[in-house]
Amino acid sequence: MARWIALGLGCFAVAVAIACGSSLPTPETKAHPPTTTRYVEVPYPPPAARAEIIPAKPREGAVWVDGEWSWQGKQWVWESGGWLMAPAKAYLAPWIAFRQANGKLVFAPGREAAISGSCQEQPRRAQCARQRRREPARGGCRVLITPY
What we know:
Elements: H1 2-20, E1 40-41, E2 62-65, E3 68-72, E4 75-79, E5 82-85, E6 90-93, E7 96-99, E8 105-108, E9 111-114
Antiparallel strand pairs: 1-8, 2-5, 3-4, 6-9, 7-8
């Protein structure tokens, strides 16, 4: 009897491990380019990330970019994650917030950068990775900065 219970618990543990494993394709990530990143002073750090329901992968080659908080003048605003087509020769620099030596808290939003380290200052809207449909993606398209 104890053997069957142990076997059942072992199977349950394996099933949970498989179900909870991360198998989402994600873009390559690196640090922000030091010469082109603009930091914004913020009065307090962003809240904890929100849980998101990840829809099915819309097509081959799409990568998942997690949602993140962005500073909008006087408050933090949540930007939902989404599926994107990863641009060639670019990487994602995730958001960053840290205190400088003088105690000021600064923030830089997530952005895409060219492998060379350059970034485009004005964002160009990325195509939603959804196949041609009329309805908008849940939470809208994610806006990332892409190099020319």
